[in-house]
Amino acid sequence: MKKVIVSDEIMQEAQNIVDGVYAPLTGFVDENDFKSICDNMRLANGQVWAMPIILDIDDVTKVEIKDEKSITIYNGESEFVLENITVYEVDKKKYVKLIFGTDDLIHPGVERFMEYGRYFVSGDVKVVDEKEFVTDNKNYTKPEDTKEIFRKNNWECISAFQTRNPPHRAHEFLQKQSLTCADGIMIQPVIGPKKTGDIKDEYIMGSYEILIDKYFPENSVFLNTFYTYMRYAGPREAVFHAQVRQNFGCTHMIIGRDHAGVGDYYEPQAAHDIFDEFEDDINIDILKYENAIFCDNCEDNVFINGCDCAKECKIALSGTKMRGLLEKKQEIPEKFMYPEIVAYLESQDNLFCS
Ligand SMILES: [Zn+2]
Asked: Which of 210, 220, 299, 334 lies 20 to 30 Å (CA to CA) from residue 148?
């Protein structure tokens, strides 16, 4: 069988497929599904699926595998088999706009998509042997195991929270808000390739461990990771993120305004509105939350429209602003982030990705 060398990122996507993180997908998408996902956020058979999971190859590889029915993909350490492969080419300029709503190369998701090789390969992903690709991320628990854990905890209603930052208190407010209706919450940072200046995965996890240990009721949080890369595809990615959490066994998903957005490419409300179309076809309820802020007058974190206090009283701390303060080792007030977490983050020599 022909072996094709692929990136760790592709290997991780294959692992996600095998683990059922991307169910109903069983492989990298073929041309029909690719086009249908881009056009309608549905597979060719009508099932909702918002994000094309793609394996791209270059011209040379295309020639090498032209007579093959199955190939092996590997990254030098581990491998997967791809069965019943097909190779296709799409008009990337056309489809990038359908996926991201823009073809602006400054958009990080567009930039990544346009850098893909010219051809895409579809095929069902199979594990070669028991030595399947093991992510180096010890905090990952796969869907069949999370479902078992939720069952053992007697959690029937489980909310999911997606993040890519250490916890600040506005996020904690949203997480705890969901616990007013859920038995437990799965907090699941996206772990994987990051941009320069982002906080390293291990410190996001470390700071969450502090938060959960000290500030959440016992046995109310399950900390997991979702190993993939951010597409920054806004509302489309919100649907993708929700279905992934459905696969982990969650019944509810917190979606804030401008979920998975970047710059001002998406209307903040779009990440909520998009679910109107899919509500009956997906098996997870969306908790459409407004932003949370700290209100100086209420002396608490609240939803932005959750109190009638004057605008001047309401202060938001964005992830970007928080990273800036940490970088310059400036004081972060306790109303934004717990002092133990600030101290933990500031004591790290290599907090940021380079
Ligand atoms: Zn207030």
From this structure: 210
Neighbours of 254 (CB within 10 A): 26
- Domains of the chain from N-terminus onward: 2-127 (3.10.400.10), 143-346 (3.40.50.620)
HSE, side-chain direction, 13 A CA sphere, residue 12: 16
Residue 164 annotated as catalytic: yes
Position 135 scores a pLDDT of 62
Give me 33's structure tokens.
């599904």
Contacts of 304 (CB under 8 A, 6+ apart): 290, 291, 292, 293, 314, 316
75 is catalytic: no
> What is the pLDDT of the chain when averaged over all its residues?
94
Cα 298 to ligand 1 centre (Å): 4
Rounded to two decimals, the pTM is 0.95
30 and 126 Cβ atoms separated by less than 8 Å: no
Bridge-based pairing of strands 285-288 and 79-89 is: unpaired
Amino acid type, 147: K
Q: Which residues pair with 293 in a beta bridge?
A: 302
Roughly what angle, to the nearest 10 degrees, separates helices 92-100 and 31-40? 40
What is the Rg, in whole angstroms, of the alpha carbon atoms belonging to the chain? 21
Q: Active site residue: 16, 139, 164, 247, which one? A: 164
